[in-house]
Amino acid sequence: MIEVCNISKSYGKLEVLHDISFTLHKGEVAAFLGPNGAGKSTTMNIIAGVISATKGQVLINGEDIQENPQKIKQNIGYLPEYNPLYEDMYVREYLEYAARIYLPKSEIKQRVDKMIQTVNIESEYRKKIHSLSNGNKQRVGLAQALIHDPHILILDELSNGLDPNQHAKMMELIIDLGKSKIVLYSSHRFDDVSEIASHYLILNKGSLVFDGKADDVPSVKDLFYTYCK
Ligand SMILES: Nc1ncnc2c1ncn2[C@@H]1O[C@H](COP(=O)(O)OP(=O)(O)OP(=O)(O)O)[C@@H](O)[C@H]1O
Question: Any idea what the Cα angle at residue 31 is, between residues 42 and 148, rounded to 5°?
Fold first, then answer.
């Protein structure tokens, strides 16, 4: 479970997140929607433990991420908006490098093989990362985020660079992953998430303006277009 409890974030005197709270459970795919600058990446960075909130706390299965970051980060897979890949590495080399952070040597090859298959880059893994298409770079980023089989998957603008066919395949994968994990998936586009989301969060100007289930889709859609014109 992720519990975001009254978090605010300021940069200097500018408060960019205002008292945000929500809870997500295993088996949910939560769409995190909002216009540019709403604060989605900032919130995701706080949940992933990359930056700290100015006020409030994030509990992962009841534990404060700031109190035991090493242990709690083992449960989190994160693909940031600007997918930080090592472009000069080969795909397989990069995934083995990422796996070494979490896994014993004896498990690395098998896990990397599984991830290459899971994200469907069997025809790409012998290439250098800089030579991949944007969509395939996103797949490598997703494989990196999944390498340690985390319970929580945080995906910031995963669909960047995906063509419609790749997008459809990626959505199938997210639905599958969401059955056994918590997936928090940010986007600017309602149609990007409408097939996968069981939970919607809408952020506008640093405030959470909607937190509800997929059953409320007509109202979510109206709200989304109100804030993201
Ligand atoms: N390191 C920083 N220093 C100062 N301001 C920042 C910093 N990081 C983010 N901000 C500001 O915080 C606000 C929220 O930014 P954030 O990137 O979280 O929004 P976002 O919803 O992810 O936007 P986008 O969809 O365009 O990526 C913006 O006003 C941004 O300029």
Answer: 75
